[in-house]
Amino acid sequence: MHVNVLFPINSEAFTYIVPEELKSRIKIGSRVEVPFKRSYKTGIVIDLDRSTYSASVKKRQGKLGRNITLKPVTSLLEEEPFLSAHLIRLIKWVAQYYMSTTGLALKNAVPSAFFTGKKAGRSRIMYDEEINRTKTVRLTGDQKKALSVINSEKKGVFLVHGVTGSGKTEIYMRAISALPDVKKAIVLVPEIAITAQMIDRFHTRFGEEVVFFHSGLSTGERITQWLRIRNGEVRVVIGVRSAVFAPFMDIGLIIIDEEQEASYKQFEGLRYSARDVALARAKLENFKIILGSATPSLEAYHAAKTGTFHYIKIDKRIESKPLPDVEIIDMTKETRDTFTLSAKLVDALRENVHDHKQSLIMLNRRGYSPYFLCTACGYIHKCPLCSISLIYHKDTNTLNCHYCGSWLDPGPLCPQCGGKEITYLGAGTQRVEEDLKRLIPELSFKRMDRDTTQKKLSHFRIVRQMEEKKIDLLLGTQMVSKGHDFPDVTISAVISADTALNLPDFRSAERAFQLFTQLAGRAGRGEFPGKAYIQTYEPDHYVFDYVRLHDCRGFYETEIEQRKELNYPPFSKLVRIILGFRTKENAKRITSGISARIRTGKHKNIEVLGPSPAPVEKIRNLWRWHLILKGKNAKELRRKACEIAAMLELVKDIKIDIDVDPINLL
Ligand code: ADP
Ligand code: ZN
Fold first, then answer.
1. Could you read off the pLDDT of 267-278 as tens digits, one per residue?
2. Is there a contact between 391 and 367 (Cβ–Cβ < 8 Å)?
3. What distance in angstroms lies between residue 321's CA and the mean position of ligand 1's atoms?
4. Hey, whose CA ends up nearest to atom 24 of ligand 1?
5. Minimum-distance ligand to the CA of 527?
């Protein structure tokens, strides 16, 4: 008897012989120790089989032309299987669907500590015990209706498309409470930073039965929580992306809040989408899914409209509070005393402080200024490793690359002409911070972006200060734009809409619409009506027509027509193959050599675009070109991508990275 053992490394499983005394005890999902190279390794048994060998054995056998001797399993680490057969099936599915390896999928699904022999530790409580907002609410008619639809089914996908402030969190909690006792639930959230309040609410409702699972946990904490989940000691897990692999044995429901969020997709390594993995898991394990959003992804909206998902629409805010007025500020005409803020917005913010109301403002770029420009010769600092201009950070006085993390000391002189006339063009959150301090000195506010929330729990503290009204205003990147429920926020503002509108990507209008609508939705959730301001140099952009009127349907219908015409998702599926080269010349020469070959294979029903240079041409010193495959049938598409990848593997000096269902094409 032999077994295939999987390790959390970028590889498929390895085959081992099972010694006599373990034959009746080893099962699928068992954790075992086995000899590997010159040492030992911990892995998971994923196939118990008397006939099939792993790919690696087959390959070696093929090369040697005879049977090879397999090594025996050294020991079984515990009697009960460590992973459920369900979870192993999911891991295999993920590897196959995303054209990656089963080992890499395992690595993403299970904390690495279980393979290195670390011990469980005490877990820290993330919430603040003093704050207790047990508010028993009477459900609104809309909430009741939504729940009666959701509760009447055991499986299926429910898109809850409810405007901002329509009480979606309450629906989530009640849907979990309505599950039979043995059934568990996972709540996926896009980022920790926007989840502080939701965790509070869940904790108030479910007490010790809910755990919060995220990448900020220490190793010991992760082990403890993971085991509690697996052993069924908790009922609800809230977590980011990887929580979709929570090892519950019997799931009744997965909720995906802000389903459209890009952060559900992993950008490197195993490029999986937690949303889509959740949908697949629901099919494999037979449970239901709630997708919740005020601004669903176009794909989800379309699936709901065409009957693949159940569609639950909520048009009214709780207590019929009005949605905020949206004013588009034309920056080409506006007077202003600073680079970042129009006089109109400054006046509104100032007035708000005096009225003891709060405000939220967003600029989706951290740092001080994105262009450090010499006005004498036009030199702009670029990252030496990436084809991206460096962002000036004033607090550290550095020029930082937001792609690769490297930084430079700017120095007082232009490196090209030696001149001293350096100006900053464009703005990041640090610059807005400086302007606000100068223009409204009485304003007390905090900046919330990745630079100010590096420390564990720091975003919880900032959010709490806002909740307790210790500050008047929160300034930040898209971290401030969604999720939060601050009743006294009456103004929300976008400092600059233009970058979002003009990304070279087919989803840029959709993203911009979602971002602006979400941000606007933070205002006017309490007693007083809200107002949203959007500053832009392109006030006539069609996206604003819909944002102004809160017209989701209108926007989606227009956008769907365009996608249909261009045959983009949801009307097709995409696979993107990113090719990496060491030099620009190599990139050109090699791609022109393979271009014809890529096209010769037969690919009925599949459109192959490229190879062409990627919009971001270089990252970490790798020159990037890409190929985009478009087709209706996912399987066919993957087959074609495999074929091309296999061909490319034979080409020298090329690095291949495959992205199934890419969410941007940059
Ligand atoms: P959404 O997620 O849809 O933006 P939330 O779930 O944050 O909205 O709800 C908005 C506010 O309304 C929250 O403060 C919440 O506590 C409150 N709320 C939710 N349901 C009810 C209800 N049935 N009655 C009164 N208040 C409610
Ligand atoms: Zn860089």
1. 989 999 999 999
2. yes
3. 11
4. 137
5. 1
User: What separation in angstroms does the CA of 254 have from each of 214, 275, 281?
Assistant: 16, 10, 9
Question: Closest ligand to 174 CA?
Answer: 1
Model pLDDT for residues 272-319, shown as the tens digit of each residue: 999 999 999 999 999 999 999 999 999 999 999 999 999 999 999 998
Tokens of 508: 């840029």
Average pLDDT (510-514) is 96
Ligand 1, pocket-test mutation among 174, 318, 527, most atoms within 8 A of CB: 318
User: What is the rounded CA–CA span in Å between residue 59 and residue 53?
Assistant: 10
Best residue among 161, 170, 195 to mutate for probing ligand 1's pocket (most ligand atoms within 8 Å of CB) is 170
Quote the ligand 1 centre to 201 CA distance (angstroms): 11
Ligand 1 mean position to 307 CA, how many Å?
Answer: 28
The CA 400 to ligand 2 mean position distance, Å, reads: 8
- Give the other-Cβ count within 10 Å of 6's Cβ: 26
Gap from CA of 195 to ligand 1 centroid (Å): 15
User: How far does the centroid of ligand 1 lie from the alpha carbon of residue 207, in Å?
Assistant: 19
Q: How far is CA 389 from CA 467, 478, 648, in A?
A: 37, 21, 31
pLDDT, mean over the chain: 91
Which of 200, 156, 164, 151 is closest to 293 using CA atoms? 164
CB count in 10 Å sphere of residue 451: 17
Helices (H) and strands (E) in the chain, counts: 18, 27
Let me know how long the chain is.
666
The per-residue pLDDT for 422 is 86
Atom of ligand 1 nearest to the CA of 162: 3
- Report residues whose beta carbon is within 6 angstroms of any ligand 1 atom: 137-140, 143, 162, 164-170, 318, 485
Cβ(220)–Cβ(121) below 8 Å: yes
Q: Minimum-distance ligand to the CA of 389? A: 2
pLDDT digits (tens, 9 = 90+) for 341-395: 999 999 999 999 999 999 999 999 999 999 888 989 989 999 999 998 999 999 9
pTM comes to 0.91
Q: How far is CA 105 from CA 45, 265, 515, in A?
A: 14, 14, 31
What domains can you pick out in the chain, each with its CATH number?
2-116 (3.40.1440.60), 141-318 (3.40.50.300), 321-367+427-563 (3.40.50.300), 573-660 (3.30.70.600)
